[in-house]
Specification:
The complex is a heterodimer of chains A (373) and B (157). Chain A has 373 residues and is mainly beta. Chain A is built from four helices and 17 strands. A 16-stranded antiparallel β-barrel of chain A has the order 2-3-4-5-6-7-8-9-10-11-12-13-14-15-16-17. In chain A, a hairpin with a 2-residue loop joins β5 and β6. With 157 residues, chain B is α+β, with helices and mostly antiparallel strands. Chain B has one domain. Chain B contains four helices and five strands. In chain B, strands 1-2-3-4-5 form a five-stranded antiparallel beta sheet, with helices on both faces. The chains are: A mainly beta (373), B alpha+beta (157).
Chain lengths: 373, 157
């Protein structure tokens, strides 16, 4: 639970003469983080331990309608001048103006609401020490861009919720064969607004079930006329669908995405890359709480899980590119997540990293801890 | 900290529910035209709902903290201390509002304080609304226990 400066999580039979105090300003601090131990198999690959993420959540309510929300992240524990690695970055920073359940206006550095992990990325919410490879190479989490939009629920208890944003576009010069659109993100740093892009999501929820569909559409050409012209020059079009299901000890989730880069040929010519014209794939995951079998009254969880990912960042290639079949990845990960509380997790897993070419395959043992509050 | 002291501290700063929302919720749960009396137990207020001379039940309003905003909810019990329903009176956050949906709230109906109410067991969670689900479940559990204890001790009758 979040910690609010001045008062904690408590329940009261609240009396009523307090409307005046309701408008009081309030600051909330929270956070999440994760530490990883990674041990690839094979010679000359010693294990590595890393404080992968330390994130501080800071929110401030100015009044009943206007709230600032942010996440400041330190990756890999530190950054040091002249040395590679480490990052200090804002993951989110936006102002919300709440008009009602049906609409909150939002502007700032926001998360494109694509897939599952990009918006819900706190370590206790997913199985496996590392996020799925799909959520790195296909949906480039944590993806954030600057813009404005609206979020809300569709009235009438329909169970439908939406988010829609207009944000800065991706940059074609960052697209690559192996990591797709990942390095095309601008992440709020002196971002070009030459290619305003649209992104959004519609989702439907029931107890234990959530189903969502999401999209991104926008140009990438920036000012390079050789790649494309106009606001939507060299467009990237992403569509994705996801589902999460929980019933008693059983949980499952699945995500699929298809990204079309229709001017990949021009992008490759301009920047000497081998970007695929289609990036596609997904994963399915099932989990079972083993503690239900041995200690059914326990509030702890011990989820054994199995996930299979299949994705290809060169699912199709434009003229002039020979498909690299090692980019057609087949990753199987299995392991356990022990959760003494819903917001803490101790994880262990084993990943089989395979690809259609059978080249450079490896296996990785990982251990980790994660928390959120 | 005793519960009474905790209640006092939080009460001083938590937002209250708009009276029209409380009245609407009582009418929905107990039918229109019921008589509502406000009882005091220490610093807390409990609504006693009756029609003619017969007791229909009790209700109380509380707050729990979601991700960064208070969630104002109402819990109502019948004369046998079974939970009639939970209402989310004011939800202020942009996410997690699924806790107000009837299919989620109805999981609490008919429960009494001896029943276990745990997320992931008796109460199914909602992906992407985890913080609110845990907060409201905890709040309902505590308020059901309070109302039941007060009723059984004669503090409310």
């Amino acid at each position: 639970m979040r910690t609010v400066v001045r008062w904690g999580l408590l329940v009261v039979m609240a009396p009523c003469p307090l409307q005046i105090l309701a408008a009081q300003e309030r600051t909330t601090v929270g956070g999440y983080g994760e530490v990883h131990y990674t041990n690839p198999t094979g010679p000359k690959t010693p294990p590595v331990v890393n404080l992968a993420r330390f994130v501080v959540y800071l929110a401030h309510s100015f009044d009943e309608r206007l709230t600032f929300r942010s996440e400041l992240e330190v990756e890999d524990a530190k950054i040091e001048g002249g040395k590679a690695g480490g990052e200090v970055a804002l993951e989110q920073a936006f102002l919300d103006y709440r008009l009602g359940d049906w609409i909150t206006l939002r502007t700032g550095l926001v998360l494109p609401p694509v897939g599952i992990i990009n918006e819900t990325h706190e370590p206790p919410t997913f199985n496996g020490v590392e996020r799925p490879g799909f959520d790195h190479d296909v949906i480039p989490t944590t993806w954030r861009e600057i813009g404005l939009g609206a979020v809300g629920t569709i009235p009438g208890g329909s169970g439908l919720a939406y988010r829609v944003y207009l944000v800065n576009g991706l940059r074609a010069d960052g697209l690559s064969a192996a990591a797709g659109i990942r390095e095309g993100r601008q992440e709020g740093r002196q971002a070009s607004f030459a290619n305003p892009s649209f992104t959004g999501r519609l989702e439907w929820a029931r107890p234990g079930l959530k189903i969502g569909g999401s999209f991104w559409y926008g140009g990438t050409a920036d000012t390079n006329a050789a790649v494309g012209t106009g606001s939507f020059g060299a467009p990237v079009a992403l569509v994705s669908a996801d589902a999460r299901y929980e019933n008693g000890p059983f949980a499952a989730r699945a995500v699929v995405a298809n990204i079309s880069v229709s001017d990949a040929q021009a992008i490759n010519a301009a920047y000497g890359k081998s970007v695929g014209s289609r990036i596609a794939g997904g994963y399915v995951e099932g989990a079972y709480d083993l503690l239900r079998l041995v200690a059914p009254t326990s509030s702890h969880k011990l989820n054994a899980f199995l996930r299979h990912e299949r994705y290809d960042t060169q699912a199709s290639v434009p003229v002039g590119v020979t498909r690299d079949r090692s980019l057609a990845r087949r990753i199987t990960t299995f392991g356990v997540t022990y959760k003494p509380t819903w917001n803490t997790a101790f994880k262990g897993d084993y990943a089989l990293l395979r690809n259609a070419a059978g080249a450079g395959e490896s296996e990785v043992l990982s251990l980790g801890v994660g928390y959120q509050f | 900290m005793t519960l009474a002291l905790a209640a006092l501290l939080v009460t001083a700063q938590n937002p209250a529910a708009p009276p029209t929302k409380v009245a609407g919720s009582i009418a929905r749960l107990f039918g229109p035209g019921a008589r509502v009396d406000t009882l005091r137990v220490d610093t807390a207020r409990v609504l006693r709902v009756s029609r003619a001379d017969s007791l229909l039940g009790f209700a109380a309003v509380g707050n729990v903290l979601g991700k960064d905003q208070p969630i104002t909810f109402l819990v109502a019990i019948d004369p046998t201390d079974r939970l009639k329903d939970v209402d989310i009176l004011v939800y202020r956050e942009p996410y997690g509002g699924e806790v107000a949906y009837e299919p989620w709230r109805r999981q609490f109906r008919g429960k009494s304080t001896g029943d276990s109410l745990r997320v992931g067991k008796e109460i199914r969670s909602i992906s992407g609304a985890t913080i609110s689900v845990h907060a409201v479940t905890l709040g309902v559990r505590r308020m059901l226990a309070e109302l039941t204890a007060w009723h059984q001790s004669g503090a409310i009758r």
